[in-house]
């Protein structure tokens, strides 16, 4: 079945013994050593005819087909043989008619944001653990696929809300609305009241309101500790010394440039001190400060890399004004297509200098504006000149569909999650998108601002400070209906993370007749794929 097998690390390529026969090819990974990533390169004796897609369908196989961490890893060879791994770790990527890579933590598969001096952003790879041994299973009688949802093979809708604009009044309105719609969320909160906005809600000021959120079945999550930033000494004292307000708050969502954030702590704290502090506070899950893209009509499923392209984003916004469409497209080119801080810097400098010239009449900013426009124009122009190809290329940090993955800090294991930005609930949570999520058995973890007041945000939740927008209400109510009928699973983030963690524990094997069987499902629903 396999004619060549190699392990490829950043420094070398090592040929492995090739199984001569049999239906199970065991691959020893003990020699890989201390690396951040590696690949297993496989060459099959038969062409790869079909490939199981993220939405549990068969498609013609070809170079570039990718199965992410939570997609079925199943291929069908031309001679009728099914091939799948015994464990769900890693990513499969077809590279030729007979060749495939089994990839462990390739660049962009488990990204983390790290802010340097002057808040310069870098994207680095998480430190993940690897199995010491894996195997390929071969069978003529079909394969096994696992559900990403506790409701078998349903779509998954998870909301993580950033509380930047929450007030006591908007908190209550949100809670009452979600109770009526039948939706649960992971609601970020500020523990302390230290804010540039005097009416910001916080647990310190509104403990009873937040208790009602918990009583309604929502998860509460730290959004750092306060809205505004204190001095470094005060900030780190707050971080080291704070007492969790409840016994079970495992989720941390970075806010702004708080110095103790996951994305910034290394400037002041050692890995050991940071990890130990999180452990003492029972915090196990953190946001990577990255969105796969921006939700709009047709852009919703984080397990579908083709959702996160410029073509899909443009089509989803086609009913907006030309000025708005172009502005949002350029922003997506910078932040998602390139996801390169140098290019994003040109975008930010262009916007800042344009405001100084146009609105503040600071004529000294004209030359810096010209330079930043040129720096922005080159990468944007490259995309438009090569639009036929660029428009369908998945965004750099969405290609391998990162959703939830592990990260080790000073010997302690944490879960990291990635989101899709969702501010426009009219388009991003449209009936069409909910139906798409169901049809694809898809998944999203939304990065939201339920109470954002800015008038330039299309499709925001509140049409007035005291009223939920009618279109948005209908969309959430439709989603709630699909939750009640079992077509959508609506977990809190912690529930989703705990469920998806079982993918790395599930094990497949072969029985005496050569059929692929489940040795340990670890609670995951499954079914036969043939």
What do these coordinates show?
With 530 residues, this protein is of the alpha+beta class. It contains 13 helices and 29 strands. The strands form seven sheets. Strands 16, 17, 18, 19, 20, 21, 22, 23 and 26 form a nine-stranded mixed β-sheet that branches. A hairpin with a 4-residue loop joins strand 1 (2-8) and strand 2. The protein is globular and about 75 Å long.
SSE-based structural type: alpha+beta
Chain-averaged pLDDT: 94
- Residue share in helices? 25-40%
Rounded to an integer in angstroms, the radius of gyration calculated over CA atoms is: 24 Å
Shape: globular
Q: Provide the low-confidence segments as ranges.
A: none
Largest sheet: 9 strands, mixed
Number of helices: 13
Oligomer: single chain
**How large is the share of residues in beta strands?**
25-35%
Give the termini distance in whole angstroms: 19 Å
Number of strands: 29
Helices and strands in order:
Layout: E1 2-8, E2 13-15, E3 24-28, E4 38-44, E5 48-52, E6 58-60, E7 66-67, E8 75-77, E9 82-85, E10 91-94, E11 99-104, E12 111-115, E13 121-125, E14 133-139, E15 143-146, E16 155-161, H1 168-181, E17 186-189, H2 207-215, E18 219-222, H3 232-241, E19 251-252, H4 271-280, E20 285-294, H5 310-316, H6 322-338, H7 341-358, H8 366-385, H9 387-390, E21 404-409, E22 412-421, H10 425-428, H11 431-439, E23 443-448, E24 462-464, E25 467-468, H12 470-484, E26 488-489, H13 493-500, E27 507-510, E28 516-520, E29 526-529
Parallel strand pairs: 16-17, 16-23, 16-26, 17-18, 19-20, 20-22, 22-23
Antiparallel strand pairs: 1-2, 1-4, 3-14, 4-11, 5-6, 5-8, 7-10, 8-9, 9-14, 10-11, 12-13, 15-29, 21-22, 24-25, 27-28
Helix pairs in contact: 1-12, 6-7, 7-8
């Amino acid at each position: 079945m396999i004619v060549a097998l190699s392990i490829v690390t950043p420094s070398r390529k090592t040929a492995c013994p090739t199984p001569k026969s049999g239906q199970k090819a065991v691959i020893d990974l003990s020699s890989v050593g201390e690396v951040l990533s590696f690949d297993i390169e496989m060459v099959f004796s038969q062409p790869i005819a079909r490939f199981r897609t993220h939405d549990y369908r068969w498609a013609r196989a070809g170079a570039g087909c990718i199965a992410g961490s939570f997609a079925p890893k199943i291929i069908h060879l031309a001679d009728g043989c099914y091939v799948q791994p015994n464990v769900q770790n890693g990513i499969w990527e077809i590279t030729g008619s007979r060749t495939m890579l089994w990839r462990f933590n390739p660049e962009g598969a488990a990204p983390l944001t790290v802010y340097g001096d002057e808040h310069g952003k870098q994207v680095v790879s998480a430190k993940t653990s690897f199995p010491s041994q894996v195997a390929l299973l071969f069978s003529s009688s079909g394969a096994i696929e696992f559900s990403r949802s506790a409701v078998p093979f349903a779509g998954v809708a998870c909301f993580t809300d950033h509380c930047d604009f929450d007030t006591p009044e908007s908190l209550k309105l949100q809670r009452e609305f979600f109770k009526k719609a039948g939706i649960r969320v992971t609601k970020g909160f500020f523990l302390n009241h230290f804010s540039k906005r005097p009416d910001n809600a916080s647990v310190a000021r509104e403990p009873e309101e937040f208790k009602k959120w918990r009583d309604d079945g929502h998860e509460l999550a730290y959004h750092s500790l306060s809205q505004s930033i204190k001095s470094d000494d005060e900030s780190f004292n707050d971080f080291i010394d704070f007492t969790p307000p409840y016994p079970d708050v495992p989720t941390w969502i970075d806010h702004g440039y708080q110095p103790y954030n996951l994305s910034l702590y290394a400037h002041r704290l050692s890995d050991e001190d940071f990890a130990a502090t999180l452990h003492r506070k029972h915090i196990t899950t953190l946001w990577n400060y990255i969105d796969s893209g921006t939700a709009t009509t047709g852009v919703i499923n984080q397990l579908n890399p083709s959702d996160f392209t410029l073509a899909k984003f443009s089509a989803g916004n086609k009913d907006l004004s030309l000025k708005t469409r172009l502005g949002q497209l350029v922003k997506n080119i910078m932040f998602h297509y390139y996801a390169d801080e140098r290019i994003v810097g040109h975008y930010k400098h262009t916007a800042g200098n344009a405001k100084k010239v146009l609105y503040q009449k600071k004529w000294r900013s004209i030359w810096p504006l010209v330079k930043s426009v040129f720096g922005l124009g080159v990468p944007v122009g490259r995309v438009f000149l090569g639009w036929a190809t660029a428009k369908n290329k998945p965004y750099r940090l969405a290609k391998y569909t990162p959703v939830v993955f592990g990260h080790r800090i000073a010997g302690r294991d944490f879960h990291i999650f990635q989101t899709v930005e969702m501010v426009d609930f009219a388009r991003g949570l449209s009936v069409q998108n909910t139906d798409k999520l169901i049809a694809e058995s898809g998944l999203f973890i939304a990065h939201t601002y339920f109470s954002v007041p800015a008038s330039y945000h299309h499709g925001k939740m509140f049409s007035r400070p005291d009223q939920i927008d009618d279109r948005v209400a209908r969309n959430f109510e439709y989603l709630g209906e699909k939750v009640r009928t079992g077509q959508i699973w609506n977990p809190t983030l912690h529930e989703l993370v705990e469920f998806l963690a079982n993918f790395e524990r599930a094990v497949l094997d072969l029985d005496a007749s050569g059929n692929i069987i489940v040795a340990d499902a670890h609670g995951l629903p499954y079914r036969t794929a043939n």
